[in-house]
């Protein structure tokens, strides 16, 4: 029997957008940054996550 772990970030297999947004907001809060709403998340998100968390002066 073959096993596989599938990671899905685009919602084709599993609608995980809310779970990812909650995780992002937990990380932002941990760094004393303002949390974001789904609309902004969808505007800003691009792989890799490092782009989302870039620091702007």
Describe it for me?
By secondary structure, the protein is an all-alpha fold. It has three helices and no strands. The protein has helices at residues 17-30, 38-44, 49-52. The longest helix is centred in the middle third of the chain and has 14 residues, at 17-30. The radius of gyration is 14 Å and the shape is elongated. The termini are far apart. The model has no long low-confidence stretch (mean pLDDT 79).
Distance between the termini: 52 Å
Helix content: 40-55%
Rg (C-alpha, Å)? 14 Å
SS strand fraction: under 5%
Identify the overall geometry: elongated
The total count of strands amounts to 0
- On the 0-100 scale, what is the average pLDDT? 79
> Total number of helical segments?
3
**Alpha-beta classification:** mainly alpha
Question: Ranges with pLDDT <50 over ≥5 residues?
Answer: none
SSE pattern, N- to C-terminal: HHH
The main sheet comes to:
none
Topology of this protein?
Blueprint: H1 17-30, H2 38-44, H3 49-52
Question: Nutshell version of this structure?
Answer:
The protein is mostly helical. The chain is built from three helices and no strands.
């Amino acid at each position: 029997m073959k096993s596989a772990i599938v990671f899905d970030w685009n919602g084709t297999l599993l609608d995980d957008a809310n779970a990812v947004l909650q995780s992002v907001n937990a990380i932002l809060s941990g760094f004393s940054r303002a949390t974001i709403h789904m609309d902004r998340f969808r505007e800003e998100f691009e792989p890799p996550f490092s782009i989302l968390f870039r620091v702007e002066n």
